[in-house]
Amino acid sequence: MPIFISYSHSDEAFVRKLTVALVKNNAHVWVDTWELNVGDSILNKVQEAIQEASALLVVLSKSSVQSEWCKRELSAGLMRELEEKRVVLLPVLIEHCKIPMFLREKKYADFRVNFKNGLNSILDAVARITNASQGRIVKQKVISDWSSDWGYNHGLFEMHFTIIQTGEGMPFTILTEVSVRCNKMATQRYEAYVAQGLGWLGRLAVTEHLANLGRQKDLRVLLQDSFPKELRAGAADTKRGIAYDIQVRCRRLGVDNGKDQLVSVSNYLRDIRDHMRGVARKPTTEELKRLMALIQDL
To answer: What domain range includes position 223?
Structure first.
C-alpha cells in the first residue's frame, strides 16, 4: 500500500522534493499531483487513497494547519489509528507552526534545519510499515508474522518464506517454511529483472506464481502431532520453459490441545503476495520503459 502525503499546495515545492527522495529510496508514494487526472472526482480519489494507504505523511506548516482540506485528511488518519490500533499518522514539520492538538504527543520528522536528517527519520518510520520482505497478517484475531529472503543455490535462484502463526486463545504456534527454487530459465528471467534495476519486481513475479499455484492446487498441510510435515509441489509455464519447485515444511509448537490442525499454505501465499503488491512502489517513467522492453524480450 502506498504512503499518502497530506499537504497544503503552498508547500508544493517541498513536497515535490520529498516525494522524489522517497521514490529514490523505493517508497511507494501517493501524492495528488501525480495520481489525479482531469475529470477525476477529487473527493472520492482522496478518500480511497487514505483508506488504502499504509501511512499518512502529514506535512505541517503555517498553511497546512489552517487548511480545511488538510484538517479533513488528518481526521481521517486519526480515525484509522483508533480503529486499527496502530501508527498511521507520521508528522513532518517543515517550519514553526501551531501543531494540531492530536499530533503534539507524536515524534515528528524535523525538516526545519536539515532535509537529509528529516528524510532519514521518515525512511526509518516508513520501513516498519512498508517493508515488502516481511509483514504481519491479522485475520479474525489470528496473527501471522512472516519474512522472506532470497539468494542462489548451485546457480539457481531461490526464495524462502518463514511464517509464524499464533492468535488469541491459541495454546500453540504454527511454524511454516516455504522454499521455492527456480529452474535455469526462471533464474535467467529473474536475473534479467535485476540487470534492469528491477529486482523487486522479479521477486514479486515469483511470488505471483506461488500465489497462483496455491489458488489452483489449494495447498494444505494437516498437523496431527508434534512432528513436522512436508509438502512438495511444482509450477511450470511450459511455453516459456519456466518451472518452480516448491517445498513446504510445517509443524506445531507449544501445547498439544489434542486436535488436528489444518494449515492453509495457499492462504499464506496469497496474503504475502497481496502484501508485497501493496507496498511495492510504482516504477518510475524510465523504469516502466525498461520493464516494457524487458517483457517484450522475455
So the answer is: 134-297
